[in-house]
Write a structure and sequence with these properties.
Helix content is 37%, strand content 22%. By secondary structure, the chain is α+β, with helices and mostly antiparallel strands.
């Protein structure tokens, strides 16, 4: 069985086998129930009779289901082993899950919020979580694996066909769990190589512009800051138009007075560069009143240049 990925066929074949067996026995058992109701109804057998056991029949209905279940186990194990055995020629992408977005980092250091891969190339994903348990799920490829705080997990896939495939979080991870959505974009090898080379060279491409190079950060930090808000997952919790979300809006944030809680004590501060820096690196030190301390620290997750670019962009919103 074929599909957009080898794992699709591996998983679907097992499910179809189990469904086929289940459907066969559903029809068989339903038929026998109706047959016995008609054959042994009270009108035909007014006097009840004892039925003695049938050893042959009992052996048959014990052995046959056992064999079928063993076949189910074998096909299931074969599919599981295929999904968990990573090909040696795989490319590696690091995946960081956080409330409520995904971050993909490639071998050249480029970061995106959409996963770009070449067609017919195995891809190994190293899964990590910044906060709570998430579950990386690509329905079209029939693969799913948990991202657990404090440990690394992995899975692999290969896209047989070019296109865009949904990526979801399959583990309830908080209020905006349903919005934790992105895509796998599978490109022909030549298009992927072109994209990869342009990202390394710092040249913007029409098919991607989810990451910033050092030159971009230095020359136009505000523009890059806008891209970083998306790539780093900031807009999953903070709006830029004043609408209410899990965290305070970024609109007209700079230079306004903000009431925050410090050790459960209210304090009024003025939003400046230093406050924005602290809020990104140590977000739970000063929590805005009326909001919960949910944001994970970005220390070690963000460079100084990226931090400057984000702050510059927030000042202009």
């Amino acid at each position: 069985m074929t599909g957009p990925s080898p794992s699709t066929g591996a998983v679907d074949s097992v499910f179809l086998f189990i469904i086929g067996v289940s459907l066969f026995f559903l029809v068989l058992i339903t038929f026998l129930m109706i047959f016995f109701i008609i054959k042994y109804n009270k009108k035909r057998h007014k006097k009840a009779e004892n039925i003695h056991g049938n050893t042959t029949l009992e052996i048959v209905w014990t052995v046959i289901p056992t064999i079928i279940v063993l076949f189910m186990f074998y096909f299931g194990w074969k599919g599981f082993n295929f999904i968990r055995t990573v090909p040696e020629n795989s490319m590696t992408v690091s995946v960081t899950a956080r409330m409520w977005s995904w971050l993909f980092e490639y071998e050249n250091g480029i970061q995106t919020d959409t996963l770009y891969v070449p067609v017919n190339k195995p891809v190994k994903l190293i899964l990590k979580s910044q906060d709570v348990i998430h579950s990386f799920f690509i329905p079209a490829f029939r693969i799913k694996e948990d991202a657990v705080p404090g440990m690394e997990n992995y899975l692999w896939f290969e896209a047989n066909e070019g296109g865009r495939y949904d990526v979801l979080c399959a583990e309830y991870c908080g209020l905006r769990h349903a919005y934790m959505y992105t895509r796998v974009v599978a490109l022909p090898q030549n298009e992927y190589d072109s994209w990869y080379a342009k990202m390394e060279a710092g040249i913007k491409s029409d098919i991607t512009p989810d990451s910033a190079t050092a030159s971009e950060l230095a020359e136009k930090p505000a523009l890059v800051g806008e891209k970083l808000l998306r790539t780093k997952g900031c807009i999953a919790c903070h709006s830029t138009d004043g609408s209410a979300m899990i965290g305070p809006t970024f609109k007209d944030l700079f230079a306004k007075e903000q009431v925050v809680l410090v050790d459960n004590q209210e304090k009024t501060i003025k939003v400046d560069d230093e406050y924005l820096r602290r809020s990104i690196l140590k977000p739970n030190m000063e929590v805005v009143k009326g909001y919960n301390a949910l944001m994970p620290s970005q220390e070690g997750q963000i460079s100084e240049e990226e931090l400057v670019a984000i702050i510059q962009h927030l000042k202009e919103l």
